[in-house]
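User: Second chain of the day. Same drill as before.
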Amino acid sequence: MSSRVLSTEQAKQSIRQLQSLISGGFADQISQLDCQGRVLSDPNVWDGPLAEQFRGSTWPETKAALDKAAQQLEELRGQLDRISQDIFAAGGGA
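Assistant: Same format as last time:
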């Protein structure tokens, strides 16, 4: 069984970029999507049969999927942090 430990500079950069995208860009975009979804869910702003469908099923389902994706990405960010720290501590850091 191999116990190889390797972390190249490219790996470090990719980890940092993924973490940055998760923490910054994606989280901001989800927040913006949520804000606009809430606006469109207000019958005083948008109403009618399609707006009711949006309010009743489309947006709640989409919002739940976005929340789940955000949670999973945050878990990934944490795992990347732990994995990279373990590899660097084991001497795999460049």
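Residues 9-87 form one domain.

User: Great, on to the next one.
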